[in-house]
């Protein structure tokens, strides 16, 4: 049995980063760049007007003669003599012979000429060629997460494809004879299968789309078969249920039979004690406890940082904050507690009712887990606790 922190370290050490793939930029949201990208062009690619107004060739008077017009996208070169102006619009190419742009609100228009209200300032309202970045310079380094602005920046340089660390294919293996699908009538002893839907939603919440669900009865051979298939088809396997010590819990035995290297089995925590983590070649497997809240807590705490690592992201799990608690907590278990909780508007954290690992009711209202380390037996109301905050 390992501690929470040991379990996290073992996962971080043993989770591989997936190979890189070249993908169209439009499919890379949230992925991490596996290459440096150098600017293929100057940005902007030409001197650009930052305003709607008039490009001028400055002289000592305030009156300028308008000799033409340049709109955004026009490629024509207009030659301005000293004292001349062209009507120009935001984003349009500045004539080489112009040295300032004056906003239209700052001029008086008189037929084919304008009179400036203020002194012209050389270079004003011009975005010079290469102002943002110049050709050949490092635009974004390897390891950058492709956020919307990063995607926009690369697209703005004409880049259409980028090498990124691949997203994992995730298999969710659901075990249990008692499980039936919603829509069917429950027979005595049966319950509705909910964890695959919950875990699928959680996996997709991290932008991972390739997720397959498998279901198997409590049977050793069938469990071996479905796990073999899940390992073949996925990079990460999440097994749900059947990992405890009951006579019908076959997951540990099946993982052993399939030569999965156990990296830990059981964590000193409540809920989620029976969690298993192992490796088979370059594939990793988490066997999550079947109790729904225990499964989800293990997912947030351990599977999420593994996903980050496998996709080359820099983060290491849920954001940790120190917050004031609104009630006292006692820990008589000698294990770390992970309590369903809600961070309130005022920044304090409230422990929710219904902490049983079988219950999801109040988990639906939670936005965080309070982490009570195994060495802490009591925290008083108003004390400071460590809070693991769920991503939005
Ligand atoms: N003698 C012991 N018994 C148990 C121990 C122990 O240390 N000694 N640990 C308990 C803890 S803690 C947990 S957690 C559970 C974990 O057991 P399993 O991983 O084998 O899970 P199951 O027995 O298959 O299921 C537990 C519970 O969850 C329900 N379940 C399972 N899958 C689903 C699903 N897909 N959707 C909805 N609900 C599901 C299942 O019906 C059970 O009620 O073991 C304790 N026992
Ligand atoms: O994981 Mo179990 O659910 O600790 O009760």
Automatic annotation (TrEMBL):
<feature type="domain" description="MoaB/Mog">
    <location>
        <begin position="171"/>
        <end position="309"/>
    </location>
</feature>
<comment type="similarity">
    <text>Belongs to the MoeA family.</text>
</comment>
<dbReference type="InterPro" id="IPR005111">
    <property type="entry name" value="MoeA_C_domain_IV"/>
</dbReference>
<protein>
    <recommendedName>
        <fullName>Molybdopterin molybdenumtransferase</fullName>
        <ecNumber>2.10.1.1</ecNumber>
    </recommendedName>
</protein>
<dbReference type="InterPro" id="IPR038987">
    <property type="entry name" value="MoeA-like"/>
</dbReference>
<dbReference type="InterPro" id="IPR036425">
    <property type="entry name" value="MoaB/Mog-like_dom_sf"/>
</dbReference>
<keyword id="KW-0500">Molybdenum</keyword>
<dbReference type="Pfam" id="PF03453">
    <property type="entry name" value="MoeA_N"/>
</dbReference>
<keyword id="KW-0808">Transferase</keyword>
<dbReference type="Pfam" id="PF00994">
    <property type="entry name" value="MoCF_biosynth"/>
</dbReference>
<keyword id="KW-0460">Magnesium</keyword>
<dbReference type="Pfam" id="PF03454">
    <property type="entry name" value="MoeA_C"/>
</dbReference>
<dbReference type="InterPro" id="IPR001453">
    <property type="entry name" value="MoaB/Mog_dom"/>
</dbReference>
<keyword id="KW-0479">Metal-binding</keyword>
<dbReference type="InterPro" id="IPR036688">
    <property type="entry name" value="MoeA_C_domain_IV_sf"/>
</dbReference>
<keyword id="KW-0501">Molybdenum cofactor biosynthesis</keyword>
<comment type="pathway">
    <text>Cofactor biosynthesis; molybdopterin biosynthesis.</text>
</comment>
<dbReference type="InterPro" id="IPR008284">
    <property type="entry name" value="MoCF_biosynth_CS"/>
</dbReference>
<dbReference type="InterPro" id="IPR036135">
    <property type="entry name" value="MoeA_linker/N_sf"/>
</dbReference>
<dbReference type="InterPro" id="IPR005110">
    <property type="entry name" value="MoeA_linker/N"/>
</dbReference>
<comment type="function">
    <text>Catalyzes the insertion of molybdate into adenylated molybdopterin with the concomitant release of AMP.</text>
</comment>
């Amino acid at each position: 049995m390992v501690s929470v922190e040991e379990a996290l370290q073992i996962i971080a050490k043993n989770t591989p980063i997936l190979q890189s793939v070249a993908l169209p930029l439009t499919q890379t949201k949230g992925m991490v760049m596996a290459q440096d990208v150098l600017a293929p062009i100057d940005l902007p690619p030409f001197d650009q007007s930052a305003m709607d107004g008039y490009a001028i060739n400055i002289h000592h008077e305030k009156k300028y003669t308008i000799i033409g017009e340049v709109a955004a996208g026009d490629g024509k070169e207009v030659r301005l003599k000293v004292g001349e102006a062209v009507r120009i619009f935001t984003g349009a190419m500045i004539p080489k012979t112009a040295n300032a742009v004056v906003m239209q609100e700052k001029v008086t228009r008189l037929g084919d000429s304008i009179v400036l209200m203020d002194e012209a300032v050389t270079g004003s309202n011009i975005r010079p060629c290469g102002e943002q970045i110049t050709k050949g310079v490092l635009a974004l380094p390897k390891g950058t997460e492709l956020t919307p602005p990063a995607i926009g920046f690369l697209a703005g340089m004409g880049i259409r494809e980028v090498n990124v660390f691949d997203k994992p294919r995730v298999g969710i293996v659901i075990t249990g004879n008692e499980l039936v699908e919603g829509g069917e009538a429950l027979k005595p002893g049966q319950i509705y299968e909910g964890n695959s839907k919950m875990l699928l939603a959680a996996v997709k919440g991290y932008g991972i789309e390739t997720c397959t669900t498998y279901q198997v009865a409590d049977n050793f051979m069938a469990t071996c078969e479905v796990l073999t298939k899940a390992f073949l088809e996925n990079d990460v396997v999440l097994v749900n249920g059947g990992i405890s010590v009951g006579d019908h819990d076959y997951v540990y035995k099946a993982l052993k039979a399939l030569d999965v290297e156990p990296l830990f089995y059981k964590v000193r925590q409540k809920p989620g004690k029976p969690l298993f983590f192992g490796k088979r070649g370059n594939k990793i497997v988490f066997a999550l406890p079947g109790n729904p809240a225990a499964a989800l807590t293990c997912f947030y705490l351990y599977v999420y940082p593994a996903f980050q690592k496998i996709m080359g992201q820099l983060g290491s799990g849920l954001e940790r904050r120190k917050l004031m608690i609104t009630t006292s907590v006692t820990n008589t278990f000698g294990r770390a507690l992970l309590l369903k909780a809600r961070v309130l508007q005022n920044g304090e954290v409230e422990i929710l009712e219904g902490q049983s690992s079988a219950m999801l009711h109040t988990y639906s209202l939670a936005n965080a887990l309070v982490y009570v380390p195994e060495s802490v037996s009591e925290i008083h109301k108003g004390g400071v606790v460590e809070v693991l905050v769920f991503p939005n």
